[in-house]
Each structure stands twice: as structure tokens, then as C-alpha cells.
Amino acid sequence: LCHLGHARVMVFFDIVARFLRHVGYDVTFVRNVTDIDDKIIKRSQETGETAEELARRMEEEMARDAKSLGCASPDFEPRVSESIEEITSMVETL
What we know:
The chain has helices at 4-22, 38-47, 51-68, 84-93. Helices cover 61% and strands 0% of the residues. It is flat. By secondary structure, it is an all-alpha fold.
């Protein structure tokens, strides 16, 4: 079960996307998934899962929570772990 802060963000951006579509905007709704960070690595070591297994399990739980809140699925949901090269390039540019 997601915490209230995650639920608030999911509901807020779902409402914004729906409103913008309602008033005629062409919206591409993208929600990133942070599936690798220090907390995930630490927790995976505690649970005996790989970081990827834990992240995928939590991602599935988040999707269930979003659905139970009535949120629409995003058009795209990129994972940090699948975008490392792009992220590194952007950071180097900064």
C-alpha cells in the first residue's frame, strides 16, 4: 500500500491530465519509476530479493493502488534503471 504522499501525487496528476484533455489539450502523461536507489538496494538486502525483484514488486503494488484510487494508467512509464545512459548524459551536460 502506497503512503499518502504517493497517493496525493498520483491523484493530483491524474486530475490535471484529465482536465487538460477535457479542455482540448493533447496530453501525453508520463510517470517515471525510480526503481533503483540506495533505499531499494538496502531493503532488497533485508528481504533477500534482488533490487530489481523488489522494485518490480513495489511497482506492481503502486499500480494496484493507483487503480484502486481511480487513476488512469500513464501513457509512458520509464524506469530509471532503463534510462541510466540518458540520465548520465543530462547530468554531464549540467
